[in-house]
Amino acid sequence: MSLEDSLRSLSLDYLNLLINGQAFSDVTFQVEGRLVHAHRCILAARSLFFRKFFCGPDPPPGLDPAAASRAGAASAARPPGVIPVNSVGYEVFLLLLQFLYSGQVSIVPQKHEARPNCGERGCWHTHCTSAVDLALDTLAAARYFGVEQLALLTQKQLASMVEKASIDDVMKVLIASRKQEMQQLWSTCSHLVAKSGLPPEVLAKHLPIDVVAKIEELRLKSSLARRSMLPLRHPHPDLGAADMEDQKIRRMRRALDSSDVELVKLMVMGEGLNLDEALALHYAVESCSREVVKALLELGAADVNFPAGPAGKTPLHVAAEMVSPEMVAVLLDHHADPNVRTVDGVTPLDILRTLTSDFLFKGAVPGLTHIEPNKLRLCLELVQSAALVLSREEGNNHNNNANNSSNDNTNNPNTSASATAIYPPMSEAHTSSNLDSRLVYLNLGATPQIGDDDSSSQREAMNRHGSQGGGCDPSMYHHSHDF
Q1: What is the H or E stretch that residue 281 is in?
Q2: CA dihedral 311, 324, 443, 461 (to 10 degrees)
Q3: Bridge partners of 118?
Q4: Distance between CA atoms of 60 and 455, rounded to whole angstroms?
Q5: Residue 467 placed within a domain
Q6: Taking the first listed entry, what is the main subcellular location of this protein, grouped into a coarse class (predicted)?
Q7: 308 beta partners
Q8: Secondary structure in 3-state letters for 93-128
């Protein structure tokens, strides 16, 4: 048994003590009227708060052992010796205990579970208001009970959530990160709010004045940086015109954030908005839903392969870096080029291969702390399949050119032999993507049939991608965390 397997077994053994309830329990808490049985030695070993509570002369506030002996209806209904917990809710308290016992926890509500602050039917609760609220409550509890490892884990999860959360939830996390002095989370949320395009008077209704001032400062720096990337069209640019363009871009982003693609269409037709120069498609891929990206592409006013900034990244590069099968699929459906290169010569396929290598050999991907292997595998399948189709089409074109050239040479004996095309026909045996496909399947959990044609997995992925019209069934790539 490896060290990792041994630690996992130990973690599950301790977690079973918590799950089995009263088995060997020597302390009982009451949270929101429900009893929770636990073990003093484990809690004291894992948390300084509980160590002081059980062993110190002056127990910290939040848990009130004396309340059990007080008069009143609440204490009369409580069994003797039970410790009431008033600082956190039942669900958050259980998450806290799960981490203390096992060293791991999934701070996400159960899939498709009805939640009071999530009205969307069948929501997966990955970045909705319900998921954000639970993570914020867990973060507050981790800080309150002095479980710093859980606090760091929750911060990372919140940083991942806010990338796709609503702007209201982002501002909620922004305020919490400011109160608890979490600089990295503050930086992530402040940049997202700055990119939202919400005017200062709207932000002032949700955020303190000094925070709004910081957001406006970020916007000014971003605007200056964006202008520096654009080519200089006039020796003395009109600053008023530049400000008007910035206002258009803010309005466009607000429209995309609210899924109002029709307004963007009116801006293109009536105001002459250039979606490529405004990086509309890049912004939609990074910040909006698949439906918004699809509707934006169907306008026909944006170049799906437009290179942005000094690096020259296309929207497909951005989707690959995000490991988003939904975005990769919809972009490929609208003829995104999987072989297009950045200024440094990097293709979307290169990005996914690098991420796969990092995940396989390092166990983690920098900047993607909660990467899901199935999503990574699906993205790689889709992009490899698209690249394979393009290579075959190019091979067929070369063969046709060779045949035409051969016919010309037959009819014209004076034609030089060097003019004849020499490209061989493309065959599956010569494609390098087969090796990549086998590598990903063997290391990320799938088991291909080695005796079969290796490229069949590529064709199946492409057929599945095409039959869904660019969409991806979340059940195909959702990675659950069970305990």
Answers
A1: helix 280-287
A2: -110
A3: 115
A4: 63
A5: yes
A6: membrane
A7: 313
A8: HHHHHHHHHHCCCCCCCCCCCCECCECCCCCCCCCC
Q: Contact at 8 Å (CB) between 355 and 368? A: yes
- Specify the 3-state DSSP secondary structure of 79: coil
Give the Cα separation of 28 and 36 in Å (integer): 6
- In terms of Cα–Cα distance, which of 335, 315, 228, 320 is closest to 275? 315
Residue 266 is predicted with a pLDDT of 85
What pLDDT score does 251 carry?
84
CB 178 within 8 A of CB 148: no
So what's the pLDDT on residue 35? 93
**What digits encode the pLDDT tens for the residues 155-179?**
999 998 898 888 999 999 999 999 8
* Burial of residue 392, with CB atoms counted within 10 A of its CB: 0-12 exposed, 13-18 middle, 19 or more buried: middle
What is the Cα–Cα distance from 38 to 42, expressed in whole angstroms?
8
pLDDT-flagged residues of the chain (< 70):
59-80, 111-112, 119-122, 222-243, 358-371, 395-483
Residues 367 and 444 in one domain: yes
Q: Which strand (E) or helix (H) includes residue 36?
A: strand 34-38
Structural domain including 287 reads 239-303
> Tokens in use for 185?
């989370």
Q: How far is CA 412 from CA 267, 402, 408, 415, in A?
A: 57, 15, 6, 6
Q: Which of 56, 78, 105 is the last residue of a domain?
A: 105
43, 83 contact by CB (below 8 A): no
Supply the pLDDT for residue 150.
94
Secondary structure percentages of the chain, helix, strand, coil, to 5: 60, 5, 35
Provide the token pair at 390. 């393009």
Cβ-contact 124, 44 below 8 angstroms: no
Do 254 and 395 have their domain in common? no
Radius of gyration, CA atoms only, the chain: 28
